[in-house]
Amino acid sequence: MKDMMSRQDADAAMGEETALVFKHSTQCPISANASREMESLLGGGEPVPVYRVDVNAQREVSAYIAERTGVTHQSPQVIVLRGGKPGWNADRFDITAQSVRDALGLASPGA
């Protein structure tokens, strides 16, 4: 998982064929739950490039992502980018390892 620190990092994510953007707050218990779900997803390796945005430390980057994708900012939030465009997104308690797997078209572990 790569920390997204700048607009250039956001542009790099949007330049990928498929990428995952995980926006979170280090100060929010709901974000802590979403982080555990992301760790579960990534336990077997990164299926696609994954970019993490700390919305408290990188407010400008978070706002830039919302502006570029047209996806209203939430935290925590996951956005699946396909060819630079949002293909799927979820926020708060809708972020689960399984929901992200499904959005990426990945098989469940052990399947």
Derived structural class = alpha/beta
The radius of gyration computed from the alpha-carbon positions, rounded to a whole number of angstroms, is: 13 Å
The fraction of residues in strands falls at 15-25%
Tell me the series of helices and strands, N- to C-terminal: EHEHEHEEH
Count of alpha/pi helices: 4
Query: Care to count the β-strands?
Result: 5
Inertia-based shape: globular
Unreliable sequence segments: none
Instruction: Give the rounded overall mean pLDDT.
Output: 92
Main sheet overview: 5 strands, mixed
Alpha-carbon distance between the two ends: 24 Å
Give the spatial strand order of the biggest sheet.
1-3-2-4-5
State the helicity in percent bands.
25-40%
Task: Describe the structure in your own words.
It is a single chain. With 111 residues, this protein is α/β, with parallel strands linked by helices. The protein has four helices and five strands. The protein has helices at residues 7-14, 29-42, 59-69, 97-104, and strands at 2-3, 18-24, 50-54, 77-82, 85-91. Strand 4 (77-82) and strand 5 form a beta hairpin. The protein starts with a strand and ends in a 7-residue tail after the last helix. The mean pLDDT is 92.
Write the layout of secondary structure elements.
Layout: E1 2-3, H1 7-14, E2 18-24, H2 29-42, E3 50-54, H3 59-69, E4 77-82, E5 85-91, H4 97-104
Parallel strand pairs: 1-3, 2-3
Antiparallel strand pairs: 2-4, 4-5
Helix pairs in contact: 2-4
